[in-house]
Amino acid sequence: MARFKLKTGVLDNPKSGVPYTCAKFSPQGDVVALCDDTDVLLYNIESGKVSIVSTTHGEPMSDLCWSPDSKCIATASDDFTISIMHIEYGELHHLVGHTAPVTALAYTSKGNLLCSASMDESIKVWDVLTGTLLRTMSAHSEPVVSIDIPHCDPSIISSGSYDGLIRIFDTATGHCLKTLTYDKDWQSENGVVPISQVKFSFNGRYLLVKSLDGVLKLWDFVQGRVIRTFKLGDSNQLRYSCGMDIFYPPDESTAPLVVSGTEQGDIYVWNCQNKQLLQHIQDKHRASPVMSISCRNSYMCSLSLNGECYIWEWTNE
Amino acid sequence: MANLLLQDPFSVLKEFPEKLSQVIETPLQSSCVKFSLYGDYLAVGCSNGAIIIYDMDTGNPITMLGNRGGSHVRSIQSLDWSSSGRYLVSSSRDWYVKVWDLRSPGHPLKQMKFNSPLWNCRWNNLNPWQCIATAFEQTNALLIDFQHDIPSFKKLCCIEENANSGDYGHTLVFCIHPRYQNLILTGTSKGWIKFYKMNNDGIFLIQQEKFANSNAKHMIISQAGDKIAVNSSDRTIRQYSLEVSSDLSVIRLSLEHKYQDVINKLQWNSIFFSNNSAEYLVASTHGSSAHELYLWETNTGTLVRVLEGPEEELLDIDWNFYSMCIASNGLETGNVYVWSIVIPPKWSALAPDFEEIEENVEYQEKEDEFDQVDELEQQQELDQAEEVLIDLKTKEDFDVRGNDLTLPRFIIPINYEDILMIKRWERL
Fold first, then answer.
1. pLDDT tens-digit map of A163-201
2. Cα dist. B417→A88, B72, B423 in Å?
3. Which spans of this chain does UniProt mark as WD repeats (chain B) (predicted)?
C-alpha cells in the first residue's frame, strides 16, 4: 500500500529557543526553503546541500513564499516588514506598511503581485516590480493568519482570521466577494473558532480550511458549502496554527490526500475522496507542534516548532 | 475566473464595458494598442518607434521592446501577439517588420525590411511563424515567413491576377476568417474586397466585390466569422453579413448597415467588434471635436452607448473579451484609456446572514422558517453532502463569459536586474 516513507532529515542541529515556523518546497520542487531565525536555509533535496540566504529582518519570520519562477523568496517577519529576496542577487524590496507582525504571504501565479496578511487585521497587495503598495483590504476584526491564491487563477485571494471568518477577495478591486463561516460553530457558547490555515485546491474550485479546534473542512466556496470534514476525536482549543497541505499523488489512480500536522507532533493523512485515514505518522517530531506541511511532486516536507524537519517520499513499497 | 462566479451574474455578463476605469499614462505619443490574449498585458506602440508592455494588474510598464538595441525608429503601425502569447510582431513606418520574444525583449528576435512603410502585420495562425502584412503602395498583401534564419516573403495573389489588368488599387487592409483560417479577406484603396483561399496547391482568388469608391481604412471580422465591417475614407462604416460555404467556393456578402456621423460628417479612426457573433460595434472618431467611443448594436444599427471620459481625440481601439476591457489611446497626451465593467461591492458578501434589498420589504414568515429541525436529520443531510464525488485537479475549460481557458497563457518573466538597477538609481 502506498504511503509516506521517511527520506531524509533536513536540519542536523536546530538552534534551541528559536521557533521554527515555516518550510516550503520551491515551485520546481527541488529545494526546500526553511525559516531559521532571521535567515532562510535552502536545502537541495537531491544533493543534500544547504545554503543560507540572510535577510535584513530584525525579528524571526512567520512565513515565507516562493515566487512562481523559483528565483525569489518573500519572507514575513515579526518586525512588521516583508522582504523579497532574490536567491542570487539578494534583497530586492523591503516592504514596510503593516503595523503588526506579518503572518502570511502569497504570490499570484503570474508572480507580479504579492499579498500579505498581518496581525494588524489587514491584507495588503504589493507590486513586486516596484515594491509599492497597491491596495489594503481591511475586512477582518482579528489577526489574519493565513492567505492563499489559487495556482491557476490569480483573480481571488482567500483569507482566514482569528475572528472565525474565511473571506474571499477580488484581487483586482480588493472587494470582499464571499464570506464562509462555520455557521453552527459560529454561534456556539465557546465563542468563535479561529481559522488557522486556508489552502486552495489545485484547480482553484475548493478551499481547504483548518481551524484552531484541529478540524479540517473542504469548502465548495462558490456554493458556500462544506463538502468534506476531516476530524480527529475530541477537538479543543489549540495554541498553534499547525500546518496542512493537499498532496496530489503522482499515480493518477489515487485521490488527492489531505496532510495535516497536530500540536502533539503527529501527522495525519486522509484520502480526500472517501475521508479514510490512510496514514498516521508518529514519534518523529518529539511531541513538538508540526508548524508547517508542504507537498510537491512526490514529496512532503514537515517541520516542527523545535526545528526538526523531514522530507517524506510517497512510495508504493 | 472564480471572481466572476462570486459576483452578481447580471453585472458580470454585461456585454460591453461602460465605465472608464483606468488611465495609463504613457511618456510618449502612442499610436496603437493591443491586449495579450487573456488581457494580462497591454502592448502600446508609440510614434517614435518604442513599444511598451504594461501589466494590467498593476498598471505599470514592465518592459520596453528593444531597450538593448534594435527597436523601431518610426511610428508603430500595428502590433499582434502570437497565439502562445510569447511572441509579438510589430510593423512600422521605418519599413521594418520585427518579431519579439518576450522571454528576452531587449533585442528583436527576427526582422525583415521592405521597400516601403508597413501598414499592418498580423500572425497567420495556420502556419507557425507566418505573418500577413500590408505595405504602402503595394498591390497585394504580403505573406512573410519567419520560420528560417533569413525571413522571406511572397505576394498574396494568384496567377490569373497578374495577367488581369484590372485596376483594383493597392491592398491596405486584411483580415483572416476565424473559422476557415485559410480564407483571407483583403481591402483595397479603390474600394474592393477580395477573398483569397490558401492551400497546398497555392493561392486562389475566390471572389471580389466593390463596396465603395474610396479606400478601405480598416476591415474587421467577428469571432464567429459571420459579420465583417469596413471603415473607409468616405466617412462610412459598412457592415456586411458574411456567408461562406464549407468548401470556400461560395461567398455571399450582403450589406446590413452603414454607420455615419450624420451631423458632423466625421471620419472614423478605428473600429472593433464585440465577441462571438459581434452584437456590438465600437468606433473612435477623427477630429478634435469628438472625444468619445461610439457603440452600436449591430442587429438594429442603433447607437446604444457613448463611452465618455477622455478629453482628447481617440485613435486605436482594442477590446479584450477575457477581462471585458476596451482600451483606446489619445492623440494629444498618448495616454491609454481603459473602460471596463465595474461591479460595485456587495456588502452582503461580508455578512452572509444579511441580505441586500432595494427597498423596504414587508416581513413574511417563510413556511419552514421556525420549524424544529431534527438534529439527526440535519446531520444526515450534511453527511450526504460529503459523499458527492469531488475533483480537486481538473481545471475549468471555459470562464463564465464562454472564453476558452485551455489556450496557452504566457507569463512575461520578471526582469530582476531591472529592479536592482532602478534601486541603485534611487539610492544615487
1. 889 999 999 999 999 998 755 444 555 678 889 999 999
2. 11, 24, 10
3. 69-104
Q: What is the pLDDT of residues B156-170, one digit of tens each?
A: 887 776 656 567 888
Q: Does B414 reach chain A within 8 Å, measured CB to CB?
A: yes
Residues of B within 8 A of A272 (CB-CB) are 390, 392
| ipTM for the complex shown | 0.90
Cα B204 from chain centre? 28
Task: Work out the number of other CB atoms within 10 angstroms of the CB of residue A17.
Answer: 8
Contacts for B161 with CB less than 8 Å, ≥ 6 apart: B140, B205
**What is d(CA A38, CA A91) in angstroms, rounded to the nearest whole number?**
13
Digit-coded pLDDT (tens) for B48-81: 999 999 999 999 999 999 988 889 999 999 999 9
The helix or strand, by DSSP H or E, that contains position B381, with its residue range, turns out to be helix B375-385
- Beta carbons of A240 and A266 less than 8 angstroms apart: no
Q: Name the nearest CA neighbour of B236 among B212, B220, B253.
A: B212
Residue A236 predicted with pLDDT over 80: no
**Which chain B residue's Cα is nearest to A274?**
B387
All three cell numbers of B288, joined, read 478634435
Which positions in chain B touch A227 (Cβ < 8 Å)? 385-386, 388, 390
pLDDT tens-place string over residues B11-21: 888 999 999 99
Tell me how far apart the alpha carbons of residues B79 and A211 are, in angstroms, rounded to a whole number. 50
The C-alpha cell of A255 is what? 485521490
Distance CA A97, CA A74 (A): 15
The domain made up of A20-240 is a member of CATH 2.130.10.10: yes
Q: Compute CA distances B339 → B274, B293, B309, whole Å.
A: 14, 10, 9
Domain ranges of chain A: 20-240
In chain A, helix, strand, coil percent, each to 5?
0, 50, 50
Q: Is the predicted pLDDT of residue B286 greater than 50, yes or no?
A: yes
CA geometry: angle at B144 spanning B139 and B147, to 5°? 170
In the structure, what pLDDT confidence band is assigned to residue A124 with cuts at 50, 70 and 90?
very high
> pTM of this prediction?
0.91
User: Which domains are assigned to chain B?
Assistant: 17-340 (2.130.10.10)
Residue A221: strand pairing partners? none
Q: Amino acid letter at B202?
A: G
Chain B residues in contact with A205 by the CB 8 A cut-off are: 2, 391-392, 396
Q: Is the CB of residue B83 less than 8 Å from the CB of residue B126?
A: no
DSSP B237-272: EEEEEEEE-TTS--EEEEEEEEE--TTT-PPEEEEE
Query: Up-side HSE of residue B116: CA atoms within 13 Å toward CB?
Result: 13
Closest Cα partner for A55 from A41, A78, A39? A39
CA atoms of A91 and A78, how far apart (whole Å):
18
Residue B112 has pLDDT above 90, yes or no: yes
How many CB atoms are closer than 10 A to CB B354?
10
**Cβ–Cβ contact B400 with A under 8 A:** no
As a whole number, the mean pLDDT across chain A is 89
Cα angle vertex A56, ends A51, A58, to 5°? 115
Mean pLDDT of A93-100: 94
| Alpha-carbon distance A12 to nearest alpha carbon in chain B (angstroms) | 33
Measuring CA to CA, which residue among A122, A131, A114 is closest to residue A98? A122
Radius of gyration of chain A (CA): 18
Which chain B residues are closer than 8 Å to A127 by Cβ? 58, 60
- Residue A273, min C-alpha distance to chain B (Å): 7
Amino acid making up residue B258: K
Question: Are B7 and A246 inside 8 Å of each other by CB?
Answer: no
